[in-house]
Amino acid sequence: MELTSLNDVRDLMNRHDFRCQKKLGQNFLVDANIINTIIKQAELDELDIAVEIGPGLGTLTKKIAEKCRIILAIELDRKLVPILNETLAFADNATVIHNDALKINYDNLVKHCSSNYFPDKKQDYKVIANLPYYITTPLIMHLLENGFNFSDMVVMVQEEVARRMTASPGTKDYGALSLAVQFYTKAKILKKVSKHVFIPRPEVGSALVKLQRREKYPVAVDDTKTFFSIIRAAFGKRRKTLINALSNSTLGVSKEQWSSIIKSAGIKPTRRSEELGIDEFAALYEFYVEYRANY
Length: 295
Prior knowledge:
It is a single chain. By secondary structure, this protein is an alpha/beta fold. The protein folds into two domains: 6-213, 3-Layer(aba) Sandwich (Rossmann fold), CATH 3.40.50; 224-294, Helicase, Ruva Protein, domain 3 (Orthogonal Bundle). The protein has twelve helices and nine strands. The chain has helices at residues 6-15, 32-42, 59-65, 81-87, 106-114, 136-145, 159-166, 176-184, 224-236, 242-247, 255-264, 278-294, and strands at residues 28-29, 49-53, 70-75, 94-98, 125-130, 150-158, 185-193, 198-199, 206-213. The chain has a seven-stranded mixed β-sheet with strand order 4-3-2-5-6-9-7, sandwiched between helices. Strand 5, helix 6 and strand 6 (150-158) form a beta-alpha-beta unit. Helix 6 crosses helix 8, helix 9 (224-236) crosses helix 12 and helix 11 (255-264) crosses helix 12 (278-294). It is elongated, with a radius of gyration of 22 Å. The N and C termini lie far apart (68 Å).
């Protein structure tokens, strides 16, 4: 069975009486060239552990299994489990896990599934995914904010989200997601991907993105929760000036107090959030924390 052949894919789906569900964002990748690009960019070797989110029919999963020690494929749709059991029957290093990717502790999962191979070592792993569009942002944030021990992510996402992940200050795509991704990782768009390489075809184009976890944060922040609370508040009212956006937040500081904090950070209160770089947000965080500690 060749899962990059439309005829074979349709035959497989028909035999299992499977129909794609739009609400689950099921658009299966069926292009061999794109799959090979993903495998190459993931830089897998025979000692690697890979976690694939949303394996679908197993088209990409089969190729990952050929390159790494362990592949853990997390699939939400129970109807896909018997299909994956068929397409991955040859791969004794592949484990299909029926679960919600947004609720998983990935470090615990990897530790449990790799204990026979690495009993005494905290093992890092690589995340590979053709992400359903409806969970892309919350899933990326789940992986980042919980400090999971992945080393790299190679993910297919909606092109618009890829632009937001890699955007620079002063651009329309720059926002809280940009800052979070770039705080925790080094992000790069590898390739734009046509909607014609999926079955069924999505309504928009996609992009392949690689995220490499940073060994050290780009700015000194002790409390990342507070840091990103400030960032989310600043972008919560995107069209407002920075002082007005923060004054309307739930961070417990009055407009007059925010004016003092912002000026202490060397920032003009009339600037807008999308104009601020990560260094300026770090300064804002520092003076906010200092103010709350003293008052």
